[in-house]
Amino acid sequence: MPGVPLPLHIFEKRYFDLITECLHSETEFGVVYYDGREIQRVGCTARITQVLGSTEDGKLDVMTAGMRRFAVREIIEEKAYLEAEVDFFDDEDTATGEEMHALARKCVARLKRLAAYVDSKQVLDFLDRLEIKPLSFILASSSGFTMTERQSFLEMTSIRERLLASTRSLKQLLSRAQTAKAVARIIGGNGHLKAL
Fold it and tell me: Given this model, what pLDDT does residue 174 score?
């Protein structure tokens, strides 16, 4: 997602070559979701922000940040790693108006409640200070969402639509977390909760 950090552990030579090339040329590379059957046609570029470490056997840990969304026009298979011709796109709406701010506040409140239910020690106060557009991507990248949901959020070209979808999904996650906590209380925390 744009603006969202993504740590990567590079262990295949082809991706090591890609990362090395991006470091030398200070360019972004594309990240797309492969669901086991097909490569999705919408992805996001990533910029390497920090090299965290490397090993003698060619493994590399890097921190990246999402930059720009793109739609794949054509896949090019000339190198060890895939390249593509892409079209970049952005949201069609802007984050203005009280409705958008109210929706953003609702999303943040639900995410904080969810974090409290799952006993997360994560500090989420920074969310209150974000502008609505980057907030919509951070909400959409929440760990409780499936990869299919995240892909859907990535493809949306409306901040409002992304916030509404995040609100609905967070409501469902919160409901499941509340149910799981209630079940844990009933069964006395006997260790079987993880199976739920």
Answer: 82
Distances (CA, A) of 155 to 14, 21, 164: 27, 28, 14
- Mean pLDDT over all residues of the chain? 87
Confidence grade of residue 196 (pLDDT, cut at 50, 70, 90): very low
CATH code, 61 = 2.30.130.40
- 177 neighbors 118 (Cβ within 8 angstroms): yes
Burial 65-98 (b: 16+ CB within 10 A, else e): bbbbbbebeeeeeeeebeebebeeeebeeebeee
Q: What is the DSSP letter of 126?
A: G
Q: 85 and 106 share a domain?
A: no
Please tell me the distance from the alpha carbon of residue 11 to that of residue 55, in angstroms, as a whole number: 10
In this prediction, residue 155 carries a pLDDT of 97
